[in-house]
Amino acid sequence: MKTSFRTFLPLMAASVIATAPAHAATTIEDTTTNGTSKYRLVVSDTAINWNDARAQAINIGGYLANITSLVEQNFLKDWLANRYSNVWIGASDVGEEGKWIWMDGPEAGLNFWNGAANGATTPGSFAAWGTVRFSEPNNSGNEDYGSFNTSYGGPDGAWNDLQLNGNNVTRAFFVESAVPEPGTWMLMILGLGAVGFAMRRRQKVGVRFQFA
Length: 212
Ligand SMILES: [Ca+2]
Ligand SMILES: [Ca+2]
Ligand SMILES: [Ca+2]
Known about the structure:
Layout (H helix, E strand, L loop, with lengths): L1 H18 L6 E9 L2 E8 L5 H10 L3 E2 L5 H11 L6 E6 L6 E4 L7 E5 L5 E2 L23 E4 L10 E4 L9 E7 L3 H30 L1
Parallel strand pairs: 4-10
Antiparallel strand pairs: 1-2, 2-10, 3-10, 4-5, 4-8, 5-6, 6-7, 8-9
Bound molecules: calcium ion (CA) (3 copies).
One calcium ion binds next to β9.
């Protein structure tokens, strides 16, 4: 058993290397939590397009961040502290021009903005498009993907719509995922306790049958 595993391990490692797709390497540069959300700042060593960033976010158990309140916007702005001038977020109007939607996560499918820069949020929704240098979203050259902290639109943390390739300079993306609430942990612990209790009961029943 031990010998065969030792023989197998290098083979496994070799096959992982052999089948690894030859695209940019990404690193989780920073992690934080705020309320019920965990955020990871993931950075690619070369430019990464929105679709690939989205796939990687899902692959690590999250989604490109959906920024749905001023509190969340300011939190991410302060945390990022201008480390990157463009960071992909989960917004897109690729389905219908000017109809901006959060694409994945708990808000998947939520239409939060309609129109170009002179458009408006849908009732109860939040948006933080850039207004200083350019008015965003401006769909300049057909831009359908949301980015954060743009150096184009300003102010800090403001959003800009970019083309799929992010002008071939966008390297960073925010990955959001859920933090289990304390109540959820308690239920999980109680659940494990119940499994343990059931197992002990089964053992007892087994012993009883043995001596019956
Ligand atoms: Ca969010
Ligand atoms: Ca667009
Ligand atoms: Ca734009």
